[in-house]
Design brief:
seven-stranded mixed sheet, 409 residues, Spore Coat Polysaccharide Biosynthesis Protein SpsA, Chain A, MetI-like fold, 10% strand, 19 helices, alpha/beta
Length: 409
């Protein structure tokens, strides 16, 4: 351990020994978030989604000095939001820290709640999150965090820092965008998190932001916590392959695709084109749906199992109703993508009676740039009508789906 690290280790040990006892809180439980004027759209979605889901928990919106105005406070007043001014933080800016990330533990520690559900401004909810305070995991450990699949601390030298401080260098990194914590049980760990952020000029050289200061502090204080369910390597591999499939340009795959369809006598047929559209939109549709699926609490499935429901019954009566808004949004995405597609239809269809509407629109443009504006405008209007009608009919589901899909994973 070099001299600089030894000095910080000594200060760390002193801080760990001097954390004191939980001073009490004015309210039993509530939600804490942080934001400013530039995060207004995110805050609006988060708070509206909470109240739309029936959440009645009090909400504290923490901000630093000069980050909000009276108009914003009046806007959120009907939703029971209390604005808390954190003033200027006791530590300054540096090249590793912009003064904002460390505000999360500051807001949690100084909030008026004993039990805190912290939600980043860019979150939204599909159901009332108040049940998180009654889960067996939270009641047993007093803290629930979500793991972050993005591994950064090892690249910064965080594993060596943890080893020098007597901690296990391995383990999953935290996601600090959402967590649930009982301050009365985790007070020492939370205060230690504050200590790490106050000295961010040093610790942020090795730890990736505030999320890893939480893990570092909780491990050092020997404070129990639980990590929410994580993706297995098979799931990560599958999602990675889905994204990889979207990286290939169409021109690269159209010739082998044409040859395969020709062997099956599907060239110049609507069946062949539909098959191509299904295969092409399926990967990104699966990627969209997985964020909705991950937002469904596992406790609902376990509760249904306790009541004697089978897997198919749970899927039909629990999962599908909660997943319906996401399915609608994903289906709309797939429809619009296929309806507006041009390149595959151009290559695979050649009979005038089978061409799609997008190909028909292109026929109103001459080879020398001469455009038949009247027929083109009329056809373009007709081409947009199906999408407009579907969006109008499914608007309620679309709004719910967009909010629930915005949940951070």
């Amino acid at each position: 351990m070099d001299a600089e690290r030894a000095r910080y280790f000594e200060r760390f040990q002193h801080a760990l020994a001097e954390m004191g006892e939980f001073p009490g809180a004015a309210h039993e439980q509530g939600i804490v978030t942080c934001g400013s004027l530039k995060f207004t759209p995110y805050l609006w979605i988060l708070i509206r989604s909470l109240r739309h889901a029936g959440c009645t928990l009090p909400i504290e919106l923490w901000h630093m000095e000069g980050e909000v105005n009276a108009a914003l406070q009046r806007w959120f007043e009907p939703y029971g939001v209390t604005f808390r001014d954190g003033g200027r933080l006791p530590w300054g800016r540096n090249r590793f820290f912009n003064g904002a990330h460390g505000f999360k533990p500051y807001a949690v520690v100084h909030s008026s709640f004993q039990r805190v559900l912290f939600l980043d401004a860019d979150n939204s909810v599909a159901i009332d999150p108040a049940f998180l305070f009654t889960t067996p995991e939270f009641l047993r450990h007093g803290a629930v965090f979500w793991s972050d699949p993005v591994v950064m601390t090892d690249r910064l030298g965080g594993a060596a820092l943890r080893a020098d401080f007597g901690l296990d260098p391995g383990g999953d990194e935290f996601e600090s965008g959402q967590f649930v914590v009982d301050k009365s049980r985790c007070w020492r760990a939370l205060r230690l998190t504050m200590h790490l952020n106050e000295l961010s000029g040093y610790y942020y050289r090795f730890l990736f932001g505030d999320k890893e200061t939480f893990r570092f502090a909780f491990d050092a204080a020997r404070q129990p916590y639980v990590l929410a369910r994580q993706q297995g390597w098979i799931s990560r591999l599958g999602l990675g392959w889905i994204l990889l499939s979207q990286m290939f340009p169409l021109i690269l795959i159209v010739i082998p695709l044409f040859l395969v369809l020709k062997d099956f006598h599907l060239v110049n047929t609507h069946a062949g084109l539909v098959l191509v559209y299904v295969v092409w939109t399926l990967p990104f549709a699966l990627w969209m749906l997985q964020s909705y699926v991950r937002g469904i609490p596992k406790d609902l499935e376990e509760a249904a199992l306790v009541d004697g429901a089978g897997r198919l019954t749970i899927l039909r009566t629990v999962i599908v109703p909660l997943l319906a808004p996401g399915i609608v949004v994903t289906a709309l995405f797939a429809f619009v993508t296929s309806w507006n597609e041009f390149f595959f239809a151009l290559v695979l269809l050649d009979s005038p009676g089978k061409v799609t509407l997008t190909l028909r629109l292109a026929q109103f443009v001459g080879i020398e740039g001469i455009v038949r504006l009247g027929p083109l405008a009329a056809s373009a209007l007709v081409a947009t009508l199906p999408s407009l009608v579907i969006f109008a009919v499914l608007q309620r589901w679309l709004t719910r789906g967009l909010m629930s899909g915005a949940v951070k994973g």
